[in-house]
Task: inverse folding
């Protein structure tokens, strides 16, 4: 559906409407099936704890930002959870009442798939915005499941954009210019924007960092986790120095965390020791529900709201909402 007539982010959404009280997660059901009333087992305790946490989050207040917060979700390492974090965090915040836009800036179009929006070849997309000056409002699609969640899809056309952009005027500012046009008009009520970057530090990622206020880095808790991080941080510094003074590496989310392995704990400790301010308390566990949700064109937030993955992303959303933007954290509102 075109958003042209309604305005992106203009919906006021009843956050309670989609709550699924009383429903039990399939993850919970599956696990209990194997427990045989062994209610004191670590797994049973974990499930009870997840449900307790979900209920607390359901009734908690998620403060809304005083101005639109724009995140570039980036890590040039592939498969670390950039897309999963972008869409689930966006869905969690939108479900709790915020107006949220996800910009799919990856030719793979995974965020578009996960949000269930059309992104077949030829669909008006971020490519048209970047290369043909199409207004963002004309290509944004509303999520069918959460009305205050929007997505600007990516199609396979975007695969050539890194090269095509090279010869375009203001090539690093294409996304910046288009997004500011949206924010001054139909997107003025947006609370959060997440730009799902590709696994590279090319022009698409650069465009995202030029318009973003914050960089969110998902880090997978595995052996090579910190490799490549120096280069990513150098890129953030370079963008801040030359192209976007507002940019801050504000948030690190530890993904696919398995608390039972020493390696995951060691990696998490190492990340925390390097980035104590940025690393969120809440980690995202490895969960089948998280990985299967995109095949239904859904985020885990709607696919299985009681699952450990959904609850973890809701907790991450709350932490990000409560911490506020870096300007709010450190220097008062800009
Ligand atoms: N918490 C999780 N539990 C289980 N599987 C997960 C979890 N997070 C991500 N995955 C799976 O790991 C894979 C990589 O995740 P994702 O696509 O989000 O990473 P990415 O960084 O966006 O990848 P790319 O670099 O290709 O864009 C996907 O198959 C996804 O379903
Ligand atoms: Mg991705």
Result:
């Amino acid at each position: 559906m075109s958003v042209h007539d309604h305005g992106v982010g203009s919906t006021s959404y009843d956050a309670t409407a989609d709550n699924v009280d009383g429903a039990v997660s399939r993850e919970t059901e599956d696990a209990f099936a194997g427990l045989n009333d062994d209610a004191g087992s670590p797994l049973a305790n974990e499930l009870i704890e997840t449900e307790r946490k979900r209920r607390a989050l359901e009734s908690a207040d998620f403060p809304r930002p005083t101005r639109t917060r724009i995140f570039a979700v980036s890590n040039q390492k592939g498969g670390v959870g950039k897309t999963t974090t972008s869409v689930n965090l966006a869905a969690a915040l939108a479900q709790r009442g915020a107006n949220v836009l996800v910009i799919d800036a990856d030719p793979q179009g995974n965020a578009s798939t996960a949000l269930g929006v059309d992104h077949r070849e030829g669909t008006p997309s971020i490519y048209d915005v970047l290369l043909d000056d199409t207004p963002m409002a004309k290509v944004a699609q509303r999520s069918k499941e959460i009305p205050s969640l929007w997505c600007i899809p990516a199609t396979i056309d975007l695969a050539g954009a890194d090269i095509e952009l090279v010869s375009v005027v203001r090539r690093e500012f294409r996304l910046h210019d288009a997004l500011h046009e949206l924010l001054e008009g139909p997107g003025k009520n947006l609370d959060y924007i997440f730009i799902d970057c590709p696994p590279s530090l090319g022009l698409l990622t650069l465009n995202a960092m030029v318009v973003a206020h914050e960089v969110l880095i998902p880090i997978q808790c595995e052996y090579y986790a910190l490799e490549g991080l120096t280069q990513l941080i150098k890129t953030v510094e370079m963008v801040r120095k030359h192209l976007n003074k507002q940019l801050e590496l504000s948030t690190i989310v530890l993904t696919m965390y398995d608390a039972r392995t020493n390696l995951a704990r060691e990696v998490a400790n190492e990340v925390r020791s390097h980035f104590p301010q940025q690393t969120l308390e809440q980690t995202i566990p490895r969960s089948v529900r998280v990985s299967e949700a995109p095949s239904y064109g859904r985020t885990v937030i709607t696919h299985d709201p009681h699952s450990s993955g959904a609850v973890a992303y809701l907790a991450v959303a709350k932490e990000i909402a409560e911490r506020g933007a870096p300007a709010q954290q450190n220097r008062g509102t800009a």
Observations:
- Residues 64-323 form a domain with the Rossmann fold fold (CATH 3.40.50.300).
- Residues 78-84, 106, 108, 110, 199, 255-256, 284, 286-287, 290-291, 309 surround adenosine-5'-triphosphate (ligand 1) (CB under 6 Å).
